[in-house]
Amino acid sequence: MKSIRIHTYNDKPVAEQIPTPAVAKDQVLVQVQATALNPLDALVVSGVAAQFFAISLPLTLGTDFAGVIEKVGSEVSQWRVGDRIIACADASTCGGLAEFAAVPASACVALPQSMSAIEGAAIPIAALTAWHSLFSSARLKAGETVLIHAGAGGVGTFAVQFAKKAGARVIATASGDGLELARRLGADEVLDYTSVDFTSVVHNVDVVLDLVGGETQQRSFEVLRKGGRLVSTAMPPDAHMAESCGVTASMFYAAQYASQLDKLVSSIVEQGVEVVIDRVVPFDAFDDAWERLVSGRARGKIIVQ
Ligand SMILES: NC(=O)c1ccc[n+]([C@@H]2O[C@H](COP(=O)([O-])OP(=O)(O)OC[C@H]3O[C@@H](n4cnc5c(N)ncnc54)[C@H](OP(=O)(O)O)[C@@H]3O)[C@@H](O)[C@H]2O)c1
User: Fold this and answer.
1) How far is the CA of 206 from the centre of ligand 1 (A)?
2) Where does the record place the Enoyl reductase (ER) domain (predicted)?
C-alpha cells in the first residue's frame, strides 16, 4: 500500500510502498479516506516530538484521519466492518498517511452521517486543542473577553467559533484573508497583526489563547486584566512574568484530552460549528500539502486525500 514515511529525523517525508499493517487483537484496520496535517507532524519529523512520545523509526506519519473499518481485531466488540470512523492516533505510532492504518479501537469515534471524511479528519487535534484550552485550561465563561492569536489557523478557526458560541466576546488576530475568515466565524473584533500592535488596542481581557508563542506570547501578558489567564499551545509561558503581572499562565497539551473526542464531535454537529478546510490535496501530491503546513499560513485545516 502507499504510505508517507520518515526513516530518520529531519528526513523529508517520502511516499513509499509498504505492506498493509497487521491488526492486533485490540485494534481495527481502517481504509483511510482523508488525513489532516497538524504542526505536530512537523515536530515528529524534526525529532522534537520524540522528547514527549516513544517514537520509533521508520514511521508512517499522520495522527488524525477518517475512513471505513476494513477489519476488526479479535477482542474488538464496539466496531464492525463498514463502520465510518474518525481516528486520533497516538503520536508515537501515527499511521494515518497511508491507504490503510491499524489503530487501537479505543482511538476511534463514529463519523457522523452528516459529516464527510474530510471534515471528520480535520477535527481531532485541532478541535480538542481549541475546546480544552479555552474551557478546561482557561475556564473561559460567558460574558468574558478572550484574545485569540492566530484566529484563522487550524486551531484558531475552531477556537473563535467555540468561544463565540459559549457567549464570550472574541478578539482575534490574523492577516490578509484570515481577517475576513475570523470575522465570518464570529470574532467581534479582528486585528491585523502585521500592521497593528495588539498591545496598543487590547486591554484588560480575561483570557488570552496564545497559538503563536515567542514575542506574541510575551507581549500578551500586558493585555490581561489582574487575575486573567493565559493559555499557550505553542510555548511554555514564563512563570515569573505571569506572577509579576498578577495573572496565571499555563502550557496546554492536547494528548490528555483524546478520550473526549466523541463528545466534542457530537457538539460540533449540534452547534453547527464550521469545519474550515484550507485545501484538500491528493495523496500523490503530498509534497504540496507538506509545503503548506510548514509555511504556517494555513486557513483552517490541510487535508490529504
Ligand atoms: N500543545 C498542543 O497540544 C498543541 C496542539 C495543537 C496545536 N499546537 C500548536 O499550536 C499552534 C497553532 O496550531 P495550528 O494547528 O492552529 O497551526 P496552523 O494552522 O499552522 O496556524 C497557521 C495560522 O497561524 C497564523 N499566524 C502565524 N503567525 C501569527 C501571528 N504572529 N499572529 C497571528 N496569527 C499568526 C497564520 O496566519 P497568517 O498566514 O496570516 O500569518 C495562519 O493562519 C502551533 O504552534 C502548534 O504546534 C499545540
Assistant:
1) 21
2) 8-304
Which whole-number Å values give the CA distances from 260 to 22, 204, 297, in the listed order? 27, 32, 28
The predicted structure's pLDDT at residue 75: 98
The per-residue pLDDT for 263 is 97
Which triple of cell numbers denotes residue 127? 478541535
Quick one: pLDDT at residue 88?
98
The predicted pLDDT at position 119 comes to: 98
> In DSSP terms, which residues pair with 47 in a beta bridge?
none
| Average per-residue pLDDT for the chain | 98
Contact 262, 110 (CB under 8 A): yes
Residue 29, ligand 1, Cβ within 6 A: no
Confidence of residue 73 (pLDDT cuts 50, 70, 90): very high
> How far is Cα 117 from Cα 60, in angstroms, rounded to an integer?
20
DSSP string computed for 282-300 = -GGGHHHHHHHHHHT--SS
Grid cell for residue 171: 478578539
CATH class, domain 2-123+275-304, is alpha beta
Could you say which of 3.40.50.720, 3.90.170.10, 2.10.70.10, 2.40.50.140 is the CATH number of the domain covering 126-254? 3.40.50.720
| Residue 176 to residues 34, 53, 173, 190, 301, Cα–Cα distance (Å) | 28, 36, 11, 11, 17
The protein residue whose alpha carbon is closest to atom 23 in ligand 1 is 153
